[in-house]
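Session log. Operator J.P. requested a structure for one protein chain; no other inputs attached. Running the standard single-chain path with token output.
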Amino acid sequence: MKSFLSDINTSNFSDIDFEILNFIINNTQIVYTMSIEDLSNTLFTSKSTIIRFCKKINLNGFSELKYILKNESTTNDIDGFKNFMNYNINMFNNFIKNIELDKILATVNLITNKNPLYIFGNSLSGIPAKYLYTVLNSLDRRCVFISEPILMKSISTSLDEKSTVLIISANLNNTIYEDIIKTTVINKSKIILITRNKHSSLIPYADISLLTNDENITYKNIDVNSRIGIITIVQIIIELSYRKLLAQ
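Structure written below.
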């Protein structure tokens, strides 16, 4: 925003305040359509934190912020789309520059051996998971794709130290994955996580964690997350796995 948000006093801002502000600046035309629940879920913070943020910028609450953002959003659709594309291109370029190739190579080494491999992806994250599974099987690297948490939880109890579990999840929701991951750890199986949620308490349990900078976006409690980073990591893994399997 060139008026209201650019002129506010940030001297008393915390780290989370700056995170909220940066998200609003980069997603103005989305934020004024969101509920406070949508924004809190997107930023993994509480509604009270967002309300306190609004108070710090001298507003009565989130509704007043939305009103101001909507009134100040005078950018036409074409310019808005260009800004949106430029922002996402910059985000993607930054992700590519900082990609952890050592972790990707370690992942490729694990999934191209002959030990049992289970690929798990639930809901929309099941799409890149199923893609990886399909390509690996077409390359004669036999593995198992699972999309149901209950089934994965059941299977995790019978795994051993030779098994590898690769989980793809944008949000890495603790309620879905906690039992699966902790049981897998107890059985000494290898765990690979591909996620955008760098704050998840489950990451320390993984042998390899590949993190993306995809933004978490929900609209009316619907998951509309970008998974460009996750899909890119999956494609790189596929390319390197193909070369490794071809050489074996």
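Operator note: The two ends are 55 Å apart (CA to CA).
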